[in-house]
Design a protein that fits this description.
Largest sheet of chain A: 6 strands, mixed
Number of strands of chain A: 12
Number of helices of chain B: 0
Structural class of chain B: mainly beta
Helix content of chain B: under 10%
Helix content of chain A: under 10%
Strand content of chain A: over 45%
Order of helices and strands of chain A: EEEEEEEEEEEE
Oligomer: heterodimer
Order of helices and strands of chain B: EEEEEEEEEEE
Largest sheet of chain B: 7 strands, mixed
Structural class of chain A: mainly beta
Distance between the termini of chain A: 41 Å
Number of helices of chain A: 0
Shape of chain B: globular
Distance between the termini of chain B: 36 Å
Strand content of chain B: over 45%
Radius of gyration of chain A: 14 Å
Number of strands of chain B: 11
């Protein structure tokens, strides 16, 4: 069975600070890895994803994530956060087959103060 | 266009009511999903339709009844719900081809309150 673990429940940062959110997954087969963001009152949006190739993937709004297969990790990073990055961040894993579930981690609430 | 629309945005219903949630996408996607999200929790899968056929039912109580009338529409019929069913109900869609990196696109959700 697939599972996702996000280590940080709530992260509080000041603007311009660097961000790293941890994500570890458990799955024996080929996986697709995702980071979604949910801004207050808005729907889930895809930040970035990894399924093959360069393990360092870049997404929208200056976010990037690194897939480290040996550590089963897919950590999200941003060098300098902004107040507008305040949101809930979900790491998710999905098996490589049609019409299958996204398995989400419990999420990390990021609060950025200006 | 990567838009999934859901109606209504908000719904309040009593435990004896019957209501329906609607979801629509025009991206030509052939897989559609219902997720349930409680406050401060991650979304949890309820149902998957693949090519208009129910392919996954995650042991959801029968008071929730999904329907996929065509490839663009997905309904969730609600009957005799309990207060603990109050949540944000999210619809999503994806291509349904199983290609690597296939992305699920989410709608804004319907916030349901059961009294």
């Amino acid at each position: 069975a697939q599972s996702v673990s996000q280590h940080n429940h709530h992260v509080i940062l000041s603007e311009a600070a660097s961000l790293e959110l941890g994500c570890n997954y458990s799955y024996g087969g080929t996986v697709n890895l995702f980071w979604y963001v949910q801004y207050p009152g808005q729907h889930l949006q895809l930040l970035l994803k990894y399924f093959s190739g360069d393990p360092l993937v870049k997404g929208i709004k200056g976010f990037e994530a690194e897939f480290i297969k040996s550590k089963f990790s897919f950590n999200l990073r941003k060098p300098s956060v902004q107040w507008s990055d305040t949101a809930e961040y979900f790491c998710a894993v999905m098996a490589n087959q049609a019409g299958t579930a996204l398995i989400f981690g419990k999420g990390t609430t990021l609060s950025v103060s200006s | 266009d990567t838009e999934v629309t859901q109606t209504p945005k908000h719904l309040v219903m009593g435990m004896t009511n019957k209501k329906s949630l609607k979801c629509e996408q025009h991206m030509g996607h052939r897989a559609m999903y219902w997720y349930k999200q409680k406050a401060k929790k991650p979304p949890e899968l309820m149902f998957v339709y693949s090519y208009e056929k129910l392919s996954i039912n995650e042991s959801v109580p029968s008071r929730f009844s999904p329907e996929c009338p065509n490839s663009s529409l997905l309904n969730l019929h609600l009957h005799a719900l309990q207060p603990e069913d109050s949540a944000l109900y999210l619809c999503a869609s994806s291509q349904g081809s199983g290609a690597p990196g296939e992305t699920q696109y989410f709608g804004p959700g319907t916030r349901l309150l059961v009294l």
